Amino acid sequence: MTERILIIDDDEQLMKAYKEHFTELGYQVDCASEIEEAQTLLAYFQYSVIVTDLRLSKLGFDGLNLVKYVREQALPTRVVVLTGYGWPEIKAEARAHGVDVFVQKPTKLSTLAQTINALTGVEA
Amino acid sequence: MKESLLDNILDPSHLSVRFQPIFRIHEKLHQVCALEALIRGPKGTNFERADILFDYVRRKRVEAAMDRTCFEAICMKAKELPSQFRINVNVHAVTLGQKPGFTDFFWKLADRCSIPMERFTIEIVEHAPSCNIPTLMDTVTALRDSGARIALDDVGLGQSNYRMMLDCQPEYFKLDAYFVRSLKHYPRRKAVVESVVKLATAMQGSVVAEGVECVDDLLELNRIGVEYVQANLLCSAMTLEELLATGLLGHHHQEQALVYQASQPLGGIDKGPGKLLVSA
Hints:
The complex is a heterodimer.
Chain A: E1 4-8, H1 12-24, E2 28-32, H2 35-44, E3 49-53, E4 55-56, E5 61-62, H3 63-72, E6 78-83, H4 88-96, E7 101-104, H5 109-120
Parallel strand pairs in A: 1-2, 1-3, 3-6, 6-7
Antiparallel strand pairs in A: 4-5
Chain B: H1 5-9, E1 16-25, E2 30-40, H2 50-60, H3 63-78, E3 86-92, H4 93-96, H5 102-112, E4 120-125, H6 133-145, E5 149-155, H7 162-168, E6 172-175, H8 187-202, E7 206-210, H9 215-224, E8 228-230, H10 240-246, H11 254-257
Parallel strand pairs in B: 2-3, 3-4, 4-5, 5-6, 6-7, 7-8
Antiparallel strand pairs in B: 1-2, 1-8
């Protein structure tokens, strides 16, 4: 079965690049650029992995809220957070809310792919 | 800048409309009497599915804007339908309960598309636990006074409760598919259907059963006294063009157009499960 991943970001160009790359790797990729869109998709599809930025200022919400939502709904989904912040306290809070992996921004697509492959058990 | 999902779906040109016939069922004949207009979201997206589309709309709390957009999309297509068929349009209760009212918008658009109000049935969809009931009742009265009929959607589920039956006094009670499946094997479901038929009759209304999937259920509904059926078993939801191509609406033979006879009389239909008589 094709693994399905959800990418949430406020940068359309970046999201397009993610989608093209992970689709080429064999994933079924959905993108959301706002929290209601993400929540709706999460209600109908089962995602192996969610990739979200921690600070999504343009979208008017914090990526951490989405992580909380995923955990409140008890969704069996691994969460990868992209963050440009190296602050340990932010990471600690996010980890407490159920983030599985942090990836430091900026990152290469290949690095992110390695992370997702490891979480889904998909061989590169 | 790329258009947001919300901008995208609030543009009627990005929505598509399907029509599903509602049949009046008789012992030997099914007669198309109305067409429910069903909306699909932007093509090729996850939001093409109506359930996903309207879930998103409710999360964004833009039901009223969406209902207007849907009505625009529907009118543009419905004006091409043969004029003898009623058109059922879904509207959220919260939309009907908002000021400024939906009614003016509805009237003006229907008039612009030369569709008489008498052809519309407003199906009230209720998903929110509360809406402005006095305004809702005023709007329903205004719509009814202008010739439209009222249906209560998803009776028995969610918020389509007894109060809505009293407040809106619907002409039609649309019974969800959940209650009409495998009636022979589930006497309790049959009891629910019988009670809704009795209730609707006492309120001078009629029952429309949705999602009938097999002939056994169709026959049982007929026996119970359900007057109308909307089901893929008889005809799935289709684009206007597909529907016209079936000949089901028979616009070339107006006298016969209202009567669609199944391939065999109802009592003798092949009882295979899910047999489609007309499909896209």
